[in-house]
Design a protein that fits this description.
It is a single chain. With about 250 residues, the chain is of the alpha/beta class. It folds into two domains: about 70 residues, no CATH class; about 160 residues, Four Helix Bundle (Hemerythrin (Met), subunit A), CATH 1.20.120.450. About 50% of the residues lie in helices and about 10% in strands. The strands form two sheets. Strands 1-5-4-6 form a four-stranded mixed β-sheet. The chain has a two-stranded antiparallel ribbon with strand order 2-3. Helix 1 runs parallel beside helix 7 and helix 3 packs across helix 4. The longest helix has 24 residues. It is globular, with a radius of gyration of 18 Å.
């Protein structure tokens, strides 16, 4: 049995590490997309509105916006009004919808090529954001609340790409091979933030290469695969007990 550490002692991801994780995650996501066979693109995913192709087009569109302030403004200007046309649950849903719609004409080969090219530009764009803009308040929604834009630029967008890589792997029967250095750091940081959104004690043992054991007080002991934990917290899988506390990912 692995040794538990206090959730308060989890080393949070700083900005320098965040950039390395972002670059690595885009590379991993693009590599997975490049492996997709023709039959994979239409498989359903845990994201109710999207098949595999829809997930990839969303990630591509979001990366395009991160790489270009002009594209970002275009997506907000044209995307927010779409919330009235779709079953929107969050103000960003319309933006996500626009990302998919405006790239639906691309061939699979074009999607792969563009996804491979945009990752480095997206990370560079995020890290070029001027300091005053990094502090702009962004309503993330419950239970996170309002966060500065830097929350998304540094870790939020990377978590999104990472979770969608897991979505695609689950949908297509591919095996995600996590590492402690990359996936484990994302999982630990997610656990640290999740613990700030509720007051329950817990003894959380996450299994696999990305796993660890994290504790607060003498609460419920839970053993779960590290990647499945994040699928539960994000609502992709059902959660009970302390795992009923969600965290949007």
């Amino acid at each position: 049995m692995m040794t538990a550490i206090s959730v308060d002692d989890i080393r949070r991801i700083d900005r320098a590490e965040a950039r390395q994780l972002a670059e690595r995650e885009f590379a991993l996501f693009s590599a997975l997309v490049g492996e997709l066979g023709r039959e994979d693109w239409t498989r359903p995913t845990d994201c109710d509105r999207w098949d595999v192709r829809g997930v990839v087009l969303h990630v591509l569109g979001a990366a395009d916006a991160q790489a270009s302030p002009r594209e970002l403004m275009h997506q907000f200007r044209r995307g927010i009004p779409l919330n009235k046309q779709i079953d929107a649950h969050h103000w960003v849903d319309g933006v996500n919808e626009l990302q998919v719609r405006e790239r639906s004409h691309l061939t699979d080969e074009e999607v792969v090529a563009q996804m491979t090219a945009v990752g480095p530009r997206a990370v560079a764009g995020r890290w070029r954001t001027p300091a005053p803009l990094r502090w702009l308040p962004v309503p993330i929604g419950p239970p996170v609340g309002v966060k500065p834009l830097s929350y998304l630029l540094d870790v939020g967008f990377t978590r999104d790409v990472w979770m969608h890589r897991i979505d695609i792997a689950e949908a297509t029967g591919r095996v995600v091979t996590p590492t402690a250095e990359h996936d484990g750091r994302l999982v630990a940081d997610i656990v640290a933030e999740w613990a700030t959104t509720h007051a329950d004690d817990f003894d959380l043992e996450t299994e696999g290469p990305a796993g660890g054991r994290f504790r607060r007080g003498d609460g419920e002991h839970v053993r779960i695969d590290a990647l499945d934990l994040c699928r539960v917290l994000s609502g992709r899988l059902p959660g009970e007990g302390v795992l009923a506390h969600p965290l949007p990912l």
